[in-house]
């Protein structure tokens, strides 16, 4: 079974600064997908960024980028130029390839962006 | 607008009663999922369905039941056998790509 660990229960960052959220996972699979989801106070889950394990290039989406280290089984999220609207819970999630698209979630990191 | 709807947003029930949570999608997605979220925790998979008239148990299926009679709909019933039903319930769907898209959730409180 896969496990996903987010070791930082809470983090804070000043507006306009950069913050990195950590995620590690455990799997014996070679092909898989990794995701970061954002859950603001409204509790709607929003997909932030995804990474295919077979791709060496780190994914980027505007101010969001990842540092994917396959050998280390690490998948951190970097948020640049933090904005107040980035305040939310962030969840890292793992999906095996050809496994019904089922997600395994980490426990989450609560991020507070301070003005 | 395409998307996933869940109703109601808040639901209150007495202990011992079954309750059904609605999930509808108009994204033409084949797969649908139900997750449970407890305070301060991540999401755990209850049931999933990859095609109409077929569904599988997830990690915490005990005390829950589902049906998938239509592609658009995947209702979840929380039965009286579920020991701790108070939680936030999220429905999701996915299509030919692998991303899951989530509904707004239903907060169920059982007293």
- Mean of residue pLDDT of chain A? 94
Q: Class by helix and strand content of chain A? A: mainly beta
How is the main sheet of chain A built? Answer: 6 strands, mixed
Mean pLDDT of chain B: 93
What integer value in Å does the Rg of chain A equal? 14 Å
| Percent strand of chain B | over 45%
From the helix content, strand content and strand pairing of chain B, which structural class follows? mainly beta
Number of helices of chain A: 0
The oligomeric status of these chains comes to heterodimer
Distance between the termini of chain B: 36 Å
Distance between the termini of chain A: 41 Å
Overview in brief:
Chain A has strands at about 5, 10-15, 20, 25, 30-40, 45-50, 60, 65-70, 75-80, 90-95, 105, 110-115.
Overview of the molecule:
The complex is a heterodimer of chains A (115) and B (111). Chain A contains no helices and twelve strands. Chain A has strands at 3-5, 10-14, 19-21, 24-26, 32-39, 46-52, 60-61, 64-69, 74-79, 88-96, 103-105, 109-114. In chain A, the strands form three sheets. In chain A, strands 2, 5, 6, 10, 11 and 12 form a six-stranded mixed sheet that branches. In chain A, strands 3-9-8-7 form a four-stranded antiparallel sheet, with no helix packed on it. Chain A starts with a strand and ends with a strand. Chain B is built from no helices and eleven strands. The model of chain B has no long low-confidence stretch (mean pLDDT 93).
């Amino acid at each position: 079974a896969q496990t996903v660990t987010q070791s930082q229960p809470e983090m804070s960052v000043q507006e306009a600064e950069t913050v990195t959220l950590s995620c590690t996972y455990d799997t014996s699979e070679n092909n898989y997908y990794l995701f970061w989801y954002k859950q603001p106070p409204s509790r709607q889950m929003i997909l932030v960024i995804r990474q295919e394990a077979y791709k060496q290039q780190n994914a980027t989406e505007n101010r969001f980028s990842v540092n994917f280290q396959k050998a280390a089984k690490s998948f951190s999220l970097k948020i640049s130029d933090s904005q107040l609207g980035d305040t939310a819970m962030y969840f890292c999630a793992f999906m095996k390839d050809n496994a019904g698209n089922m997600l395994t979630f980490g426990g989450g990191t609560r991020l507070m962006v301070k003005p | 607008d395409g998307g996933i709807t869940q109703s109601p947003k808040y639901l209150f029930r007495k202990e011992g009663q079954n309750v059904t949570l609605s999930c509808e999608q108009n994204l033409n997605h084949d797969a649908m999922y139900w997750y449970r979220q407890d305070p301060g925790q991540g999401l755990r998979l209850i049931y999933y369905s990859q095609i109409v008239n077929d569904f599988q148990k997830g990690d915490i299926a005990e005390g829950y039941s589902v049906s998938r009679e239509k592609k658009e709909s995947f209702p979840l019933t929380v039965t009286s056998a579920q020991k701790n039903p108070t939680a936030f319930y999220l429905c999701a769907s996915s299509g030919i790509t692998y991303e899951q898209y989530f509904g707004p959730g239903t907060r169920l409180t059982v007293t």
